Amino acid sequence: MMSSENRSDFSASCSSISEEARAKINLALHVTGQRPDGYHLLDMLVTFADHGDRLDFMPSPTDEFTLSGRFGETLAGDGGTNLVLKARDLLREAIGPLAFPVRIQLEKNLPVASGIGGGSADAAATLRGLMRLWGTSLPEEALAALALKLGADVPMCLASRPLIARGIGEKIEPVPELPVLAMVLANPLKGVSTPEVFRRLATKNNPTLRLAPSLRGTADWLAAIGAARNDLEPPAGEMVPEIAVISAMLQAHGALLTRMSGSGATCFGIFATMAAAEDAAAALHDERSDWYFQATETVSGGA
């Protein structure tokens, strides 16, 4: 018979664990070359928003996976390619017998195929959450290799802190001095095919991302971000004209800087204050209630 002490230990170990899967924002994305295997070489300045998906994990008699949230139904029609399940299975393979069955609940708040790393953030949150639930961890190099196997964006989403990523996304350096930014994420709810965007890219060997070594304060950073680029924005804009429309709408509502994130179609507008971002998001939603607008704040580089 289980003692009361053991029983309480058992129930504590069975409690639910939650992880936030923060939206990944490409403040800059320079395509600097292409490897012989077809992968594009990128220089990216990346930050993460407070807003994102949410995952809950708990022990279960058998593996289960459930979806909720505004974009849950969209993902359900994804044909079973969900990165959450791939992350669970790869991690279980690496960990072995400790990896008991789990129930995973994904609250899908981010648009699907939208250039803000939703699937990659979900996969990274799954790795973090299941290591906590299973009471284990992997050596840093093994975890990084497993994350990269899930996708080029997953290693940076594991960190979920401001960073510069180079190569295909695997060479990561933190940027602790990047300040918190108030922004509005905006998407016309049209998916964009990343391979097609790269296929339409006119020039593959563009100048690298160079940041001044002594950027101080938000004004300096805004100037540096403004001087950078997203090389995927022109080809994505050819495919989805609404990208230019939504960028102009953000500017009209007071954004200090607008740009597309990743391969689109999500654009972001950086605002002077969180109150200004919230006001803009509300006004934009009134104009186009069928599109996606979300005021959010990015995480601090020093946090």
What does this structure look like?
It is a single chain. 37% of the residues lie in helices and 26% in strands. With 303 residues, the chain is α+β, with helices and mostly antiparallel strands. It has 2 domains: 4-173, Ribosomal Protein S5, domain 2; 176-297, GHMP kinase, C-terminal domain (Alpha-Beta Plaits, 2-Layer Sandwich). Strands 1, 2, 3, 4, 5 and 6 form a 6-stranded mixed sheet that branches. The protein is globular, with a radius of gyration of 20 Å.
- How would you characterize the largest beta sheet? 6 strands, mixed
- Give the beta-strand count: 10
- Overall geometry comes to globular
CATH architecture of the largest domain: 2-Layer Sandwich
Strand content: 25-35%
Low-confidence stretches: 1-13
User: What class, by secondary structure content?
Assistant: alpha+beta
How far apart the termini lie comes to 46 Å
Q: Summarize the amount of helix as a percent range.
A: 25-40%
The level 1 CATH classification of the largest domain is Alpha Beta
The SSE string, one letter per element, is: HEEEHHEHHHEEEHHHHEEHE
User: If you compute it from the alpha carbons, what radius of gyration comes out, rounded to the nearest whole angstrom?
Assistant: 20 Å
Number of domains: 2
- Our count of helices gives 11
Mean pLDDT over all positions? 91
CATH names the topology of the largest domain as Ribosomal Protein S5, domain 2
In short:
By secondary structure, this protein is an alpha+beta fold. The chain has helices spanning 4-13, 72-76, 83-95, 118-133, 140-150, 154-159, 194-200, 217-227, 233-239, 242-252, 274-287; strands at 17-34, 40-59, 64-68, 102-107, 163-166, 171-174, 182-187, 257-260, 267-271, 292-297.
